[in-house]
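job 3f2a | input accepted
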Amino acid sequence: MSSPLTIYADASDGYIWSYDSTYADARAGMGSISAFTDGEYLCQGQANNPPYYFFLSYIQFDTSSAAGYVSVAELTLYEYYTYRNQAFTAWVAQYDWGASLTTGDFVAGADLSALTKVASIASADIALSTYNAFESEAAFPAAINVGGYTRLILFTNRMESGDAPAGLTERANWYSADTAGTTSDPKLYVEYGAPVPISL
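job 3f2a | predicted structure (200 res):
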């Protein structure tokens, strides 16, 4: 019998932007980089204002109370604002960025494909000013750290493939855990304690 658990994100969440007049340098983190951990929203995507901006977001959940085998994992984020000048897929991947976010946690665009993807949502499917459930990948339950914190990184398919922004901005903004209360905080739903499947 599995047990359900809803966990809200830790307030250490945040985002990193890398920007440069050259897209390749912004994507590689070779330009200017800043980390933001106390804002009310998280940025996921890229822009050409100019200069070029490359936005990565980071979320962590205390999943230590999910004892035992995790059978279900679902991420839900509350939409703050979405720029749809170019269609994209918002990806979530497993990434241990540590207890606090710094510019050293930046992941170059060329390295994003090596990460284990756990959930996604298409930009066209993002509902405005409400919670959005990401579609979970088969790898998500195994990515839950039942002994501590589950840490995630957010990026897009176009950031991964190195497609420079065709329009002004292609970005999803989500409410962070720094907003008052928990009515719009990132949340993770898990079911745990179920028997481990046996492969025959």
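job 3f2a | The two ends are 21 Å apart (CA to CA).
job 3f2a | closed
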